[in-house]
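Why this split exists: single-chain examples teach little about how molecules sit against one another. For that reason, every record in the complexes split bundles all components of an assembly together and asks for one structure covering all of them. Below is a record exactly as it appears in the raw files.
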Amino acid sequence: MQTSDILKRVRQIEFKTGKLVRETFAGEYLSVFKGQGIEFAEVRQYIAGDDIRSIDWNVSARTGNTYVKKFNEERELSVIIACDVSASQYFGSKGNLKSEAAIELASVFAFSAIKNNDKVGLLLFSDKVELYIPPRKGKRHVLRIIRELLAFEPKRKKTDISLALSSLIRLIKRQGILLFISDFLDENYEKPFKLAARKFDLIPVIIKDPLEFDFPKLSAFIQIEDTESDNGGVLSGSSLRQISQARAEVLEKALNLFKLSGVDYINIDTSKNTLDPVIKFFKQRSGKLGI
Amino acid sequence: MTFENPVFLYLLGPVFILCLLGAFLKSNFIPRIKYPLPKGVRIKVSPLFAFAKWLPYMLIVAALVLIIIALARPQKQGKAVIPPAKGIDIMMTVDTSGSMSALDFQPNRMGAAKQAVLDFIDKRATDRIGVVVFADSAMLQCPLTLDYFAIEEYVKMIHIGMLKSPGGTAIGDAIAVSTLHLKDSPTKSKIIVLVTDGESNTGTLDPLSAAKAANGYGIKIYTIAISGEGLIQQPIQTSLGTRKITFKADDVGEGLLKEIATISGGEFFRARNNAELNEIYKTIDQLEKTEFEKAIQVNFEDVYQKYLVWALILLVCSFILEKFVFIEVP
């Protein structure tokens, strides 16, 4: 992609996600992602309508007027977007590529975060950490993150979720929200996953394509090759069943792990609207929190 | 089979190299759909596919080879046709006098002579042959022709007494009639094969003069005397039926026949039985061998259509296999 194309695409994403961020997610985001606590800001005179519970009795007694305490929510949240850029992400049968869906999703979260004055950081990984941008505030920073997401060319093909998670645990000192976008086509990442779930507000995002689970039965010889290795050959009926079965197992395993770790996840299908599951996620989560 | 443009066969070389290159590319650079596979899934190539993959390719290669062969213009050699003028002229002069019915040959002299003549005709291919029969006079039975079928029919019709009086043997007249029909022929080599069983005892022409005349026209005369030895039986028709008479073999006028042969530059033969007679005709056949080699004209028949049709069939088969049976994606 050329720079002008990338910028155009960034604008498109900004425009597309802008309305969502302003309207649909505005309240949800704020309520779903709570800050660490509340901090005292100031006292001011009571105005009719103020909650009587917030009246500062000490100050009121001393001055003889009614004063209320005012608190500010502490919103120094940092949102880390960890995105899988392994070769398996560059796949898609209908609508979007998996990577495109990932970018769209990451953008929505990044804009939402910046709207609420949160910091946004980015980590791109394959079987190594390809790129890390520490969390910062500001619109320029978000645009840079989106630009990186669009233009980044990974050096490696394979996926190592375990390494990405343990790197994140090491890198990010403070707690925060970790949006972990991947197709979870990997093994042996349970332990760092649980650690990360404990440390961060971990939101795994599974991106999948329908073709991965169900290959149309063609009376033809289909030459396929793994995106991440040399493994390849001709699809026959038996290998087709084997593949879809194995893929379903991988997905099942990941979902089980999410449940076990008590995290809410977002499940995205490239053939469908990318942002619907996000809205669903916010609703689900706010329901859980009793808001 | 020969090729009109064998130069094109050199194309087989580049085609062979191209085939190897194609096979190399086909087995090493396979277009494949990139597909995220879960770890631990291994895909094997099925043996059916391994076979199906190469079949259309091999058919195309075979079609290509056939097309190149067609391009080289294969030809089949047709039958050698020799122009008639190149052969020689032969006049078969056959005695039909009464004595030809004698039984010292099988079935009799006449039958044996006819059979020998037919066999002789069979061996010739490009010579014009005519038939003259004689007894006390001579007659053209069949003029010089290449129509061997007709000649054979005419020879089969020969029988004793077909001329008015079967009594005499007019060798002089026979030679004269034969010469008459040979002399105007433009052919270089002309021969008369005279078969008789008796001395010349009648006729308007002296045999030796006739022979000289024949020689003057460049005609060779081969004379064959047919007569057995010892006592010879001969059936004779009488008013009371067929009766056999027996007589002693004579010398058939060998002297005269020899002289005729010598004068005209031919040869004299003496046949005592069927075997000898056949042998004599074979000898004459050998002596008058026509040289074929220089006169050969070969007709070539183009047979490339067959190759093209097969190439087309193979191409269509390959197409059907590739597009409808062994479909490969991508």
